[in-house]
Design a protein that fits this description.
The protein is α+β, with helices and mostly antiparallel strands. It is built from twelve helices and 14 strands. It has two domains: 161 residues, 2-Layer Sandwich (Uridine Diphospho-n-acetylenolpyruvylglucosamine Reductase, domain 3), CATH 3.30.465; 112 residues, 2-Layer Sandwich (Enolase-like, domain 1). 34% of the residues lie in helices and 23% in strands. The termini are far apart. The chain binds flavin-adenine dinucleotide (FAD).
Length: 311
């Protein structure tokens, strides 16, 4: 049923990188909710897999000394949604993770897999774009040069802004032997912000987004003006995307005016297409409607907290 050439269970990050360097055609398997489906469909028939399951160093969420949130890639959607740090500091991500699939998928699917598959509909991606998430990628050091025994591979880490990680549909900035080992959100990117993610799908569960919209804002103390706005969409282009022109235009604007303008401005900036799921015209209507609703919800959250920042 599953045509797999070779399955290797890595024992740690170094071992995983070494296994991928030793067999450059092998691919990582995390939760397997994408990979196994593709193997069964025949698209990845005969593949060799390097599993990251059970690697404790790739799991968990913690706060670094300077307030940066560090999320390891093998964290599942269910773990993200339940995590006290995420719920308290970036509840928008807890909510976005809770929109994925159904309970079974949310217990096996990982944050890392959701980003590394390079898919525009990934439910956590647009939210992470609004937090300027920085991705930590670990792979073979350049000076190791592929020489010698892969088991002796020297490791190097690099940090990649999420917007640069996405290189095209299904294509992310991971070279041979490289794996995603962490994701960081700096405190200045979440403190004081209130946001909301809205997924529109053709049914309420077990369906990928027809369009996803993430709005993340900082309001003034009276919630009368927008001090800052970050706006991102999934399925409004070949990869998840921010709307820098709309963000710049709305910064400093009275909230009433911003609510009136966000939809039209965003619709002029995105590039959705027709697909069997929805027409381009319908997706543009979703962009207009969901951006306004998400901004309104962010404002309501801010008002509920009396304009107080997430601590
Ligand atoms: C029934 C069903 C419903 C779904 N519904 C949704 C939905 O509503 N929203 C949504 O966004 N997605 C949905 N998905 C897609 C999928 O569940 C998610 O994308 C999930 O996050 C994939 O994570 P995973 O751990 O299972 O990844 P895997 O399938 O293990 O891997 C996915 C890809 O990422 C790579 N990869 C994984 N981890 C790493 C790493 N640390 N470093 C390098 N590469 C890595 C793998 O090589 C592979 O290319 C659904 C899938 C199914 C089967």
């Amino acid at each position: 049923m599953f045509d797999i050439e070779r399955y290797y269970q890595a024992t740690d990050i170094q071992d995983a990188v070494a296994a991928l360097c030793a067999d450059p055609k092998a691919m990582v398997i995390a939760g397997g909710s994408d990979v196994l489906v593709e193997i069964r469909e025949g698209k990845l028939a005969g593949v060799s897999l390097v599993s990251l399951q059970g690697l404790a160093e790739l799991k968990g969420i913690r706060l670094e000394e300077d307030g940066t949130l560090l999320i390891r890639p093998m964290t599942t959607f269910a773990e993200l949604t339940a995590d006290p740090l995420i719920r308290q500091r970036i509840p928008m991500l807890a909510h976005a993770a809770d929109q994925v699939g159904g309970p079974q998928i949310r217990h096996v699917g990982t944050l890392g897999g959701n980003l590394c598959n390079g898919v525009t509909s990934a439910d956590t991606a647009s939210t992470l774009f609004t937090f300027n998430a920085m991705l930590e990628v670990t792979g073979p050091a350049a000076d190791w040069g592929g020489k010698g025994d892969p088991g002796d591979v020297l490791l190097a880490k690099k940090q990649i802004p999420i917007a640069e990680f996405y290189q095209g549909p299904g294509k992310v900035a991971l070279g041979t032997g490289e794996i995603l080992t962490g994701l960081r959100i700096a405190s200045e990117d979440y403190k004081g912000y209130h946001g909301h993610y809205i997924k529109y799908a053709m049914r309420n569960a077990m369906d990928i987004a027809t369009l996803g919209c993430a709005v993340n804002c900082r309001f003034d103390a009276a919630c009368g003006h927008l001090e800052d706005l970050k706006l991102a969409f999934g399925v409004a282009g070949p990869v998840p995307m921010r709307c820098p022109e709309t963000e710049a235009a709305l910064k400093g604007m009275a909230v009433g005016q911003a609510l009136n303008q966000i939809g039209a401005r965003a619709a002029a900036e995105v590039k959705p297409r027709d697909s069997w799921r929805a027409s381009k015209a319908f997706r543009l209507q979703l962009v207009r409607e969901l951006s306004r609703r998400a901004l309104q919800q962010a404002l309501d959250f801010a008002r509920q907290e009396g304009g107080a920042a997430h601590a």
